[in-house]
Design goal:
homodimer; 2 domains; two-stranded antiparallel sheet; 11 strands; oxidoreductase activity, acting on paired donors, with incorporation or reduction of molecular oxygen (chains A, B); Luciferase-like_sf (chains A, B); monooxygenase activity (chains A, B); FMN-dependent oxidoreductase (Nitrilotriacetate monooxygenase family) (chains A, B)
Chain lengths: ~450, ~450
Amino acid sequence: MAKRKDQIKLGAFLLFTGHHVAAWRHPQASVGVNFENYIELAKLAENAKFDAIFFADGVAARLKDIEAASRKAHSGVYPFEPITLLSALSSVTKNIGLIATASTSYSDPFNLARQFASLDRLSGGRAGWNLVTSSDPEAAFNFGHDGHILHADRYERAQEFADVVLGLWDSWEDDAFPRDKASGQYFNQEKLHVLDHRGKHFKVRGPLNLPRSPQGHPVVVQAGASEAGKELAARTAEAIFAAQITLEEATAYYADVKGRLGKYGRTPDDLKILPGIFPVVGRTQAEAQEKFEQLQDLIQPEVGLNLVSALAGGVDLSAYPLDGPVPADLPETNAGKSRQSLVLDLARRENLTIRQLYLRVAGARGHWQVVGTPEHIADVLEERFENYGADGFNIMAPVMPGGLADFIELIVPELRRRGLFRTEYEGKTLRENLGLKRPANRFTQAASAAAE
Amino acid sequence: MAKRKDQIKLGAFLLFTGHHVAAWRHPQASVGVNFENYIELAKLAENAKFDAIFFADGVAARLKDIEAASRKAHSGVYPFEPITLLSALSSVTKNIGLIATASTSYSDPFNLARQFASLDRLSGGRAGWNLVTSSDPEAAFNFGHDGHILHADRYERAQEFADVVLGLWDSWEDDAFPRDKASGQYFNQEKLHVLDHRGKHFKVRGPLNLPRSPQGHPVVVQAGASEAGKELAARTAEAIFAAQITLEEATAYYADVKGRLGKYGRTPDDLKILPGIFPVVGRTQAEAQEKFEQLQDLIQPEVGLNLVSALAGGVDLSAYPLDGPVPADLPETNAGKSRQSLVLDLARRENLTIRQLYLRVAGARGHWQVVGTPEHIADVLEERFENYGADGFNIMAPVMPGGLADFIELIVPELRRRGLFRTEYEGKTLRENLGLKRPANRFTQAASAAAE
């Protein structure tokens, strides 16, 4: 197979204290959750020429199992809200992309379109919106609902939401504001376009009360895994934060999603696929393994059991001895046998105790986990990239800031030696660095087409 | 009358290009509307020890009269959205308060509470929320409505909105997050309080998924002028951006609002009243007048007529000669005779031409306007402060950045000579500088009271 001509794109997924479930207890983790910690992380990633920093989000604390929640950092209680956080980081960074997650389920399209366009303007063209739908049942309660919005409806709403947001972002053409002191013309009314959207879920007149942003519009990121999610991504997204674990899954997903682009008039280059990876790196395999075990040892049984329970659809193991076998005769949960089995079959197949089971699945919280030397990790990244399983990766460092610093110190140079990662930013905007086109304003396009 | 023991508080109301309607055409105005302009303005105000910078907002472009709108900077199209803008400014400033306007009519209380709390955390306790209701009929169209929400209902909704936001801000007690690595306790569940609000307009369970912020909660600012607005302010606000023009109006308003605090268990010190002032300062009266005329000469007739029309309830003067008299027999508008008369009576009383009329009312857009020497302006500020017409002022510089720089260079030293304005910040948070108490968490209070 011929080598790819493009290079790996890298995002730093900055989950505070780190992605390992027990990271916050690690001696090197910054648990202070101060803004200064984020400045440090953002600058670390920017100095290493990462494409972007990336923030997850949710709009509810997940407190159903409050005992387990009170013992972990990741219970949906964030130190900062991502749009404000990235805005604050925009003025102390210069080149790195700034991607914030925001939900279409519990946001308003006008306000969201405006805040992301504003961030794009503040940062000189570095904003990205990670479009999610909320699958957290507790979120609905914070927004006037008694129950949860169903999945199919959620995606339908999400697509319409994205259409509205993209439409609002084209309210003004790029040159709509001459601001000519002499003639007194502030804006050119012919370059203003009122959206007047009237759909099933939204009615939004527009225009957005903000000029068009440097990137045309912020980069739209998505994480579609379900059928509806993949279709939404193929139609709308410019980058995907994917979550496949094996190479086979990754290449199949990649081909599947890229294959859907044509029917929306898009090319494979219009969408970058960036799976997450949870890397534990050491100068030797033994050092890497030791680092990992150190984190694993910090997992509290309540937290481990809670994560097994979440992954296995609600099964409750708390009544059984931790160092005894996983019982054979567990009652079936609402989630159904298949989901429950995925985790429990693993335990039976490998004859794991309950503790061994949670250590196996809880640490990286189900993500693609690689423990090894810089060469080994560079190998698996290269393999996945060259085989079209990924256009780049979202780095989920186990502990912050140490895990990200390790990746940069040990793995990035190895990728550069292989010609797989940049030494300088290609451009000034997130789009330019990701290799994405700047979208023309749909109305400017229409006018040009009509004139031809 | 004994001199007041406290000092004047100063806010810088940063309307881009300046508050004069034609400011953007002024040779010294920054019309580039770049973020760098705002950094310059924020640092200017911070170096002068202002309490806060303040941003207006609206959620619609006001384009009904598009010809006039296209000739002015202030048609509701902002270069940035205020929450993102202030977040970006938070990391390049240290002491100055950051007050953003956000509407209760078209925001969601959970998202708004979270973003302002996040800004308070990012800035180390410098956030303020200027709570407004939207009176702009065009805003409704951007949020799924066909018409406008009525005034009484708007304020009722606003009060409930504020109650929800304040409740969410108390979700976690100050010491709810021990984050104790050794014991594994991340948060203390006894310090978590679920709001469970169920009201007429909102149903919000909570808790907010963000720790309590440095100021306890952001400073709540309001601009209540109507009966409903003043009551809302007396119950909820900690600072008021007031808009009275004469000393008599100002002292009457001050006494009125401060007099309402008692019934809500509050003292006069719990609420600071900060009227806006549009100052045009020159080393001599002639220089000040010349500066003002230079701005006035830049007003375009379409814009002037449009502002007269807005102030006079929709009256249309565009068919009459600009340098002829205001006609006596104008048709009555929907706004009714009284509002129309306020402006038209002025014209008749003083025998003004149409151009003279718009020059009289349009420049400062109806705000308290003072044109004079530093001594004169310091005199009127001192008079208003010492007579309890104000606790401080919101400076609406005619042109940015020049008008703000003039105020700082010429008037601030004069206020300091009189002992009326600080030379150093008293504290680190906006509250400390404004002289406002840090609110105890309502649940901590309740627990202490129960224990007594």
